[in-house]
Amino acid sequence: MAWNPFLDISNTKPLFLAVYTTVLVGIVFSTVYVVSSLYPGKLVYSEAWSSSPPLSREDSLQKQKVPIFAQPSKDTVANVSTGPESELAVHSSYKESMFTRPIWDAPSAGTKMPDLKAFRLAKEMVKYRAKDNIIIVTFGNYAFMDFIINWVKHLTDLRVFNLLVGAMDTKLLEALYWKGIPVFDMGSNINIIDVGWGSSTFHKMGREKVILINALLPFGFELLMCDTDMVWLKNPLPYLARFPRADVLTSSDQVIPTVVDDSLEIWQQVSGALNIGIFHWRPTNSSKKLAKEWKEMLLADETIWDQNGFNELMHRSLGSSVDGEPGLVYAFDGNLKMGILPASIFCSGHTYFVQAMYQQLKLEPYAVHTTFQYAGTEGKRHRLREAMVFYDQPEYYDSPGGFLTFRPNIPRSLLLDGDHTVDSHFSLVNFQLKQIRIALAITSLLNRTLVMPPLWCRLDRLWFGHPGALPGTMTRQPFLCPMDHVFEVNVMLRGQGMSEEEFGPNIGFREYSFLENTLLPEQVKASQLEVQLCDDKSLNCISNGTADNSGVVRLQKHSSEEVLTTVFSSYQDVKVIKFSSMEDALGFTNKVREAKFRNRVKRYVGMWCCMENRDRGHIYYDMFWDEKPGWRPVPPATPEDDRPPW
Questions:
Q1: pLDDT reported for residue 61
Q2: How many other CB atoms sit within 10 Å of the CB of residue 629?
């Protein structure tokens, strides 16, 4: 138990009680006077109470579930209790700032935001937010604000509060400040829009990361640096603490497991590139030297991708294990000790979304990074939504027009019979595309939002030729494949260049797991209507738009647009319409509407990649494959043929 001076004094003779009390009070006031005179107008930090955030108040805010998309009210903040162990309770005279307030404790309405100078990165700022001498950092621009909020929310849900966010533009800085997220100014003046992978601005952002690492390491704190397009699923700090001799622990693009438990990867067997989306630095001389050379390399040659530069430096001298630490290897200059985090639990977009490696090995994942995907930022966001690890705005879960879903029908033979070949893969995917095409049409007609069905694939998708599944990986065939393996998720969401006049109305959609998400409001869960398709020759197939005694609406196959709009006009208040099937559900009669719809959705599908030993091994998906007699999945024969089927 810590020494309590007041408890000890109270147990002494009464004669000395007043004396001791007077002396203690005098010491406190003298100290405050001296310190304040030495540091006028500056925040004074004390080792005794600034090393960790006020957990009792953080916990209290989290338990009250303060909304992450709205500023907490004054009443909410005022009613948060501060236990006796709270730093703010002990130091009641301490004036809270943007870095000392608990996360999500937003500034009061009507207050003025501090000058930008107050947001400059400083050791004192990091010192307050750090815990056990560790700080977790991410950074980005305004285009990634929802990713950043998601990143922070997952950490605080895990009771991890020792974090900071770097803002690359003032719009993001201001937005995060007003949400109660500890943010510092990187002074980058980066565009507030999504810059796109591989662009010059993208490379500039990579250099900002290296500059930031060089700025933080001299402060003396361990640094867990993260990209914003990753999510923490489990507190990683206890895991990282298992390897105190490591200078750098890094994630990788390894897709073949080298271990089947939670050990570090066997570095001798790692063939994938080191990935700088998740890596942990200790402030050692070796790591500082690496950071310095890395920065100098990138600033001297703007064509070098930051990750390639990191890999080049690490492999400069790589080849002997650290004594007593088989998971660590001497790298870089022969003195730096590096470990590679296991890709089974510090997951890439392939080991998590395609292989589900952690599930097969019965491990708990710490993180998922949205690499190995094919639809830009929109594809990353959708991957996280499919996994139900993305916090969206409340309105995302309750679309004004309601939702539409259907039960996909896939014959067993298409899933399981025969070898996993290009032909069998396309037969499976095309069968699903035909149903989704009809679902998109009905969704558009009823002005609803389509909940996509689970999508099954036989073959993996990559950027290069492969035999269908990478040898040595744990990819199961068939597998539940991410939507961006087949669909151009970014095109579907952006709709850029597709005017309603030429392409018809935009068609909203949600991820296949949407209705299973715990964030779905009760009013959506409770408002559902079953629709069963029936043959018009059946005696019971009489559709007048009225639900039967079991609450089911029967609908004739090949119903026209007029029939569909008439039948469902009575159910506009129903949140979710659930079709039993989509096979032959609609028969277009309005040719103008149909032409616009076709013009839009044929751009929704992408390509599969790639057949081996071909100059052009990719094959385009075709939304209307069934209307082309003799259609087969073959790669483009000539450069002139290398274009989408529209």
A1: 37
A2: 5
